[in-house]
Design brief:
Oligomer: single chain
CATH class: Alpha Beta
CATH topology: TIM Barrel
Structural class: alpha/beta
Number of strands: 9
Radius of gyration: 19 Å
Number of helices: 12
Largest sheet: 9 strands, parallel
Strand content: 5-15%
C-alpha cells in the first residue's frame, strides 16, 4: 500500500549520529515486519499516522534467526523511497555467513539506507536457548559493528540492556560487553524495553563510569493490557518491576483502566527520563499507533522543536 507520494530517494539521508549531534531530543518509533497482507496494510496505516509526528527516525526489527530478513529490507527500502522518514534497519548475525552479511549491507547501501542497528540476535525458536555461531559468521555484536563500519559510510546503533542481557553472567560483564560494542564503532544505543526509570539511570551511570559517553536512547513500550507484562518479560529477559506490576494488578479486572494506567505510567516514565537528561525516547509500537500517539501528545512534544524548548515544556 503506497503512501501516495512519488518514489524519490533523497540525495543524502541524515544519520542518527548527525541528528543526535544537532542537540535536539530524539523521538522515534519501532515497527516489525508483518506476517500477512492484512498486517502489511495495518503497518502502512500506522506509518502514515506516525509520519505526521515528524519522528527523528523509525526502525524496523529483524526476526529471530533472520526469518523476516527480506521483509525487513523491503520495508526499509520503501521507507527510504516513499516517505519523509529516516529509516533504521535492524540487522542480526544469527544464521548468516560473513558473505551474506556483507551482501545485506550492500543492499542497504544501494537503497540509500545509511542507518543500521546491529544486534547479535536471538536463536530461532527459543530466544532463551543457546546461541550458536554460524560456522562462517560472527560471534559477537562488536564484530558485526566493525563489519558494517568497514563496509562504508554507515551510522551504527547497538542494543543496551538496563537490567542486563539474559546471557550475561553479571551486570559488570554486561557493561563490559556494551562498552566493547561502542569502542568497535557504535554511534548510539537503544535500550531493550524497561518500566522503571532507575534501571536506565543505573545503566547510564555504569557506562559513564567505564569511560564511555555513547548516547543511550531509552526504549519504551506502554502497557495496554495485562498480557503485555508477561510478553515484556519474554522479549526482554528481564523481570517486570514488582511495584509497577502491583499498580496494574489492582485494576486487572478492568481492561479500560489497565490501558489508562499504561498510558499514564508511560508518560510518567518518559517525563522522568527526559528530565534526567535522556537524549530522547524510542517508542516500541508493535505496529499500533494509538497508545504511542497518546503518550506523545501528553508529553507536549513539538516536532522539530529544539531540545531546550522540549525540556521547558516538561518542567512547566
Amino acid at each position: 500500500m503506497a503512501l501516495g507520494r512519488p518514489s524519490v530517494l533523497p540525495d543524502r539521508v541524515p544519520t542518527v549520529r548527525e541528528l543526535l549531534a544537532a542537540g535536539d531530543r530524539s523521538f522515534s518509533f519501532e515497527f516489525f515486519p508483518p506476517k500477512n497482507a492484512e498486517g502489511e496494510r495495518q503497518l502502512w496505516r500506522v506509518i502514515r499516522e506516525l509520519e505526521a509526528l515528524r519522528p527523528t527516525f523509525v526502525s524496523v526489527t529483524y526476526g529471530a534467526g533472520g526469518g523476516t530478513r527480506d521483509r525487513t529490507v523491503e520495508i526499509v527500502e520503501r521507507l527510504a523511497h516513499e516517505t519523509t522518514l529516516t529509516p533504521v534497519a535492524h540487522f542480526t548475525a544469527v544464521n548468516h555467513s560473513l558473505r551474506e552479511l556483507r551482501h545485506l549491507v550492500g543492499r542497504f547501501a544501494g537503497a540509500g539506507v545509511r542507518n543500521i542497528l546491529a544486534v547479535r540476535g536471538d536463536p530461532p525458536g527459543d530466544p532463551t536457548g543457546e546461541w550458536v555461531r554460524h560456522p562462517e559468521g560472527v560471534q559477537y555484536a562488536e564484530e558485526l559493528v566493525r563489519l558494517i563500519r568497514q563496509a562504508g559510510d554507515f551510522c551504527v546503533g547497538v542494543a543496551a540492556f538496563p537490567y542486563k542481557h539474559p546471557r550475561s553472567a553479571t551486570v559488570e560483564a554486561d557493561t563490559e560487553y556494551f562498552v566493547r560494542k561502542c569502542r568497535a564503532g557504535a554511534d548510539y544505543a537503544i535500550t531493550q524495553m524497561f518500566f522503571r526509570a532507575e534501571d536506565y539511570l543505573r545503566l547510564r551511570d555504569r557506562v559513564a563510569a567505564a569511560g564511555c559517553d555513547t548516547p543511550i536512547i531509552p526504549g519504551i513500550m506502554p502497557v495496554t493490557q495485562m498480557s503485555t507484562i508477561a510478553r515484556s518479560e519474554q522479549l526482554s529477559g528481564a523481570p517486570f518491576p514488582p511495584e509497577v506490576a502491583a499498580r496494574f494488578e489492582a485494576v486487572a479486572d478492568d481492561p479500560a483502566a489497565v490501558r489508562r494506567l499504561g498510558i499514564e505510567h508511560a508518560v510518567e516514565l518518559c517525563r522522568t527520563l527526559l528530565a534526567e537528561g535522556a537524549p530522547g525516547i524510542h517508542f516500541i509500537t508493535f505496529n499500533r499507533s494509538s497508545a504511542t500517539r497518546e503518550v506523545f501528545r501528553a508529553l507536549d512534544i513539538v516536532p522539530g522543536a529544539p531540545a531546550a524548548a522540549q525540556a521547558a515544556s516538561l518542567t512547566a
